[in-house]
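Hi U.,

Before I forget, here's the chain from the pilot set. I'm dumping it here mostly so it's searchable later in email.
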Amino acid sequence: MKKIILIIAFTILLIPTVKSQEKIQFGLKGGVNFTTMTSNDYLYDEKFKTGLYLGATVEIPLSKKFSIQPEIVYSSQGIKGKAFVNYPSTLPGTMPIVNAEHKLDYIKIPVLAKLYLVKNFSFEIGPSFNFLVNDRFTSDSYTQTDLAEKFEFGGVIGLSYKVKSNFFVNTNYLIGFSNTLKSPFENSKNYGFSAGIGYLFK
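Structure:
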């Protein structure tokens, strides 16, 4: 199913690509993420986790004010908080509280519609197909993996500004529409913000 979604997405993208080859701009982008989860059910006193992202982007103009922008991005996300730990030597009813972190890394393929509101300033929105490549929960000396779903369907809403013809800065709101974690934490979804810079090759 995941492969079918990708094939459909890239097939659709080939149509405007053929018509706009002389205008296509390829680029690189990178920056920082601030992410957490909704209703994770296994941490409390949750905080945003800081991570990095790095990827490639392609801007395909369909008119002077509208473009399609597919991307492929490696994104480090997750959540930080506190957790109760039940050590074997712990007295009944006295579980210690420790700092905990759940690191989730994805290869993300957003396909964005890009509308230029004024010169060099654009609004971006679209779906994102996210594939899990790293899943690691740690608290004190305890480590667990394989807690998260392998695929996430999400969305991106953002703003971008071209400082010059080649350089740009952007900020995005990231949201997951499908469940992040497996049972019994099925109501958890990723969300957060990102900010970064990029360079478009001419």
